[in-house]
Design goal:
- Helix content is about 70%, strand content about 0%.
- It has 9 helices and no strands.
- It folds into 2 domains: about 60 residues, no CATH class; about 150 residues.
- By secondary structure, the protein is mainly α.
- Helix 5 runs antiparallel to helix 6.
């Protein structure tokens, strides 16, 4: 019985087989029927080999997709972009840190925290990223702060649950409000594990350092990213 591998439109007729046999030089001791059987056997084996090879390629592709990013280096950043990002970040973080030391620390108020460093990378380093826009920056940081403080108070006896709940909930709310800003997750975590000084602030943590520091950094970002012709910030507000 002939294998059902050859499409009907490719099924050779006896006339075509005879014509093909006639093109072979010398004596060919084979009937058209035997030739047809041989054709189907060869075609069947070739198709199976091709299918197996294709499967191996798909499997290999599945493994290689994890390695491919390692072989595709990111685009080099122009030196002027690096220099301007450095200046902008120095100005933004420097201003917040100076105000923290010169004014706020005397009143035992915190103005700077670790997640601002991550925000600085986005706002001053890749200001065209959707994650760096004002809606995301301000919204993401505020959501992280509110959720973090609430989680700290809700799970005061089990801080490890509070930490997990804060970050997970902050991510979910940032998705819902279209304010994804990765440092916002860090802010939520800081509110839970940041220590007694941060815990004493309660929801004041949302206003200072988070909102105050965020607005200062945003102001520096608006000035620095629009002071040169090759940058524009923001790409969108809302």
């Amino acid at each position: 019985m002939k294998p059902k591998i050859v499409p009907a439109e490719l099924e050779p007729t006896e006339h075509e087989i005879r014509e093909a046999m006639a093109e072979i030089d010398g004596f060919l001791d084979i009937t058209p029927h035997d030739f047809s059987k041989l054709y189907h056997l060869v075609h069947s084996r070739t198709a199976k080999q091709f299918s197996k090879s294709k499967g191996q390629n798909v499997e290999r592709e599945g493994w290689l997709k994890w390695l491919r990013p390692l072989s595709e280096p990111s685009r080099r950043t122009h030196i002027k972009e690096i220099a301007w990002s450095w200046l902008a970040a120095f100005a933004g973080i420097g201003l917040v840190a100076w105000l923290n030391d010169a004014i706020f620390s005397q009143k035992d108020i915190l103005l700077i925290m670790g997640s601002f460093g991550a925000s600085a990378v986005l706002i001053y380093g890749v200001s065209n990223s959707p994650l760096a826009q004002p809606r995301n920056f301000v919204g993401g940081q505020l959501i992280g702060a509110i959720v973090g403080v609430a989680s700290c108070q809700l799970f005061s006896q089990t801080p490890w649950i509070g930490a997990a709940f804060a970050v997970a909930t902050a991510i979910a709310l940032m998705h819902l409000t279209r304010t994804i800003h990765p440092p916002g997750g860090a802010t939520a975590l800081i509110a839970v594990i940041g220590g007694e000084k941060i815990h004493r602030l309660g929801f004041t943590f949302v206003l200072c350092p988070v909102l105050t520091g965020t607005l200062i950094m945003l102001l520096v970002g608006l000035i620095a990213n629009n002071a040169v012709r090759w940058r524009r910030y923001p790409e969108f507000w809302l």
